Amino acid sequence: MKILKVIKNIIFSRLTLAILSLAIQIFLIVFVISYFNRNLAWIFGFFGLLNTIVVLFIINSKSNPSYKIAWIIPILLFPGVGVLVYLFFKLQISIRLMNKRLKSEIENSRKYLVQDDLILSKIRGEERGLYNLASYLNKTSNFPIYNINNIDYFESGLLQFKDMIEQLKKAKKFIFIEYFIVERGYMFNSILNILKEKAKEGVEVRIMYDGFGSLLLLDHDYPETLAEFGIKCKIFSPIKPIISAHQNYRDHRKICIIDGKIAYTGSMNIADEYINLKKRFGYWKDTGVKLEGDVVNSFIVMFLELWNLENKVEEYDKYITKNELKQKDGYVIAYADNPLDEYELGKRVYLDIINNALEYVYIVTPYLILDDEMLSALTYASLRGVDVRIVMPSIPDKKLVNYLGKSYYEELLEVGVKIYEYKYGFTHAKMFISDDIKAVVGSINLDYRSLYLHFESAVYLYKNKIIKDIKKDYQDMIKNSDRITSENMKNFSIIKKIIGRILRFLAPLM
Predict the structure, then answer these.
(1) Is 435 a catalytic residue?
(2) Calpha distance 372→364 (Å, rounded)
(3) List 397, 435, 463, 496, catalytic entry
(4) What is the CA radius of gyration of the chain?
(5) Which one-letter DSSP state was computed for residue 143?
(6) Is 261 a catalytic residue?
(7) Which of the following is catalytic: 198, 234, 418, 428?
(8) Is 487 helix (H, G, I), strand (E, B) or coil?
(9) Of the candidates 387, 339, 397, which has an alpha carbon nearest to the alpha carbon of residue 366?
(10) What is 96-333's CATH number, 3.30.465.10, 3.10.290.10, 1.20.1090.10, 3.30.870.10?
(11) Known catalytic residue: 469?
C-alpha cells in the first residue's frame, strides 16, 4: 500500500502535472506544424520567404552574436518549425508587459538615487577610468557611486551567515531578503526563527525568492504559510505549466537588507550546503560582503523594483535612509543587472576591468561559458602582458556545463591565461580582482544565463581597504588549487572534449 501511495503522489504531484501539461503543449505545436508541412505545398514557399525575413531581422538586431547563431541555425535547418518557435518566443506579450512595468518602476525610483556631483567632479579629475564607469552605470541604471561607506568581506558563506544572524537580531524597522534559492534546513530555520520574532515586534519583514530556484524546495503555497507569522513573501516568476520565454528570466540575486543601514550580497544562497553543513560537491566556497552607508539605498531600490513588478506600487520614501556614517573608504557602486534592457551591465563591468587592467586580473567563477567578446577580451589582456588567472571548481555541480567550460581551456592556455581548479570542492564565488585597486563581488557568473537572462546584483569596489583581504583570499584559493596545463588537457577524455565542443552550440541556453 505504501508503494501505491508513493506512486500516486508522484503521478499527481504538482511537478508531474506541470511537466505533462508542457509536454502536451509541445506535442500540439509540433503536430500542427508537421501537418501543415506535409499537406500544404504552398506553405514551404511562404516559410522560405518568412525564414529569409526573420534571419535578416536577427542579423540586424542588437542581440549578442552567439544568440543570433543559436537562432539562425535551427531556423535554416528546420524551415517552418524554427521560425515559428522563434516568433513564438519573441512576440510574447508577457515579456513586453514585464519590461514596460520594470521601466516604469525604474523611472519611479530614479529620484531616490541621486548622484552626488561633488564625487563625480573629484574622480573626473583624479580617477578618469573610474569616472567613466561610474557615469555609465549611473546613466544606464541610475545607480550612484559613493565614497562614505564601511565594507566587510567574508571568505565563506558560514562567516557571512553568522554575521547576518547577529545583525538580524538587532533589526528595528524592516528586513528585506531576496535570494535565488531558499531551502528548509538549519540555515533557513535559524533565519526564519529570528524573522518570526521580529515580525511579532512590529518589524516589517519581506522575503522574495525565485520560482525556479526553489521549485522543488518549498511548497507552492509557502508565502501563505509565512503570512501566518506576519511575514510578507513573494515568489518571483512562479513556474507555470505554460510554454513561455517569460520563464527564462530568473531572479538570481542574493540580497539581505536591514533597517536601511546594512546590506549583504555575494554568492551565497540560503541552504545548508552554502555554509557546508550539507556536503554535495566537497567544500563549498562562497564569498560575500556587508555594506554600511548610503550605498544600502541602492539595494533597497533593487529589491522594491522587483517586488513591485506584480504588486501595487509601493512608495520608497519610508525605506530610503539617510545614514549618519562618516567613514570614507575608497568608492563603491552597488548595481543591478536587468536582462530586459540592452545594457548588459554585468558583462560591461567585467569587460571594463579586463580591458583596463595593467598588472593582473584574477577571476573566480563556478561556470565558464564565454561569448566571443569576453573570450577576445581575456585573450587580448593576456597577450598584452596582463596576468590573467581563473579559478574553477574541481568538483562541478553540473557535469555537462563543466565539459562546456573546459572546452575553452585550451584556447585560453595557448595565449597564457592561467587556469586553476580548486581541489577541495566547488567554487561558487563570483569575483573579479584587478591591480590591487578594483574588485567585484556579487551573484554574476561568467555564463550566458547570468550575463544575459538573469536579474543579478553586485558591488564594484575601488581602492577600498578590503580589496587586500579579497586578494589574500584569492591567493589562498590558488594555493589550494591545481594548475591546469596543456599537458593536463591531453589527459582529459576525448569524449568529454567532443561533448564540450558540441555544447558550444547550446551555450546561450545553458
Answers:
(1) yes
(2) 19
(3) 435
(4) 24
(5) P
(6) no
(7) 428
(8) helix
(9) 397
(10) 3.30.870.10
(11) no
Distances 23 to 20, 26, 29 between C-alpha atoms, Å: 5, 5, 10
Tell me the mean pLDDT in the region 461-474: 97
Q: What is the second-level CATH architecture of the domain 345-509?
A: 2-Layer Sandwich (3.30)
Q: Which of 254, 285, 290, 454 is catalytic?
A: 254
Which among 38-52, 221-235, 318-332, 493-507 has the top mean pLDDT?
221-235
**Known catalytic residue at 347:** no
Catalytic residue among 252, 261, 290, 418: 252
**Cβ distance 503 to 367 under 8 Å?**
no
The conformation of residue 412, written as its DSSP 8-state character, comes to: H
Consecutive H or E run containing 335: strand 328-337
Classified as helix, coil or strand, 179 is strand
pLDDT band at 6 (very low <50, low <70, confident <90, very high): very low
Q: Which three cell numbers stand for residue 144?
A: 550612484
Q: Which of 234, 406, 430, 438 is catalytic?
A: 430
Query: Reduced to 3 states, what is the DSSP secondary structure of residue 298?
Result: helix
Instruction: Please tell me which residue in 116, 259, 329, 397 is annotated as part of the active site.
Output: 259
The domain ranges of the chain are: 2-95, 96-333, 345-509
Pairing of strands 431-434, 360-364: antiparallel
Beta bridge partners of 232: 206
What pLDDT, in 10s, does the model give residues 335-385?
999 998 888 999 999 999 999 999 999 999 999 999 989 999 999 999 999
The torsion defined by the Cα of 33, 39, 44 and 45, in degrees rounded to 10, comes to -130
